[in-house]
Amino acid sequence: MKFRIIPVTPFQQNCTLIWCEQTLEAAVIDPGGDIERIQAVIEEEGVKLTQVLLTHGHLDHVGGTAPLAREAGVPILGPHKEDAFWIDGLDQQSAMFGFGKVEGFTPDRWLDEGDTLTVGKEQLEVLFCPGHTPGHLVFFHRNSQLAQVGDVLFQGSIGRTDFPRGDHATLIRSIREKLFPLGDEVRFIPGHGPMSTFGEERRTNPFVADHRG
Ligand SMILES: [Zn+2]
Ligand SMILES: [Zn+2]
Fold first, then answer.
1. Which residue in 61, 111, 115, 56 sits closest to 85, CA to CA?
2. What is the pLDDT of residue 212?
3. Ligand number, closest to the Cα atom of 190
4. 23 CA distance to ligand 2 centroid (A)?
């Protein structure tokens, strides 16, 4: 599996294009906006978009979903249905974050812990990791030990929990009980900022390092 990170929106959200090298079938994870830029990368890599995947319902992660999925004629999968209130409230989110008008949508399928997604011949495992939002998902590609974690975990930090239905203790539990057991070597793409590994965060992250108990 190959991937390319495409930072989008004024929040520099790490929209990610992933694809199967054998079939060139691709998925876009978290198309927050700037869909011309995303479409240009899809064209440049010569891959075929087959689905849009969403980690959670925040605007900077989902704002470009409706037009991107419609123009490519592909389904929208995720997030977990507990994030439906965020997606239903896209207009309010747009006002709150100072974005322009965004097009609403309903996912074709909500996802849950234990679901498996197929991109060409590659498989992604779905993990339910609430805390930043109540319906946040993480996508894990076991073969390449790569996780797309959205706003759960960042290099040196963790997701905000001061939004409606955010919960700090739940977030810490998601990171320690769902993500870290995947292994220290696992590399992750966060929703914002540089990549890191779970091992590095276990050593140095001021919020979730092992020595923080
Ligand atoms: Zn978020
Ligand atoms: Zn974000």
1. 56
2. 77
3. 2
4. 30
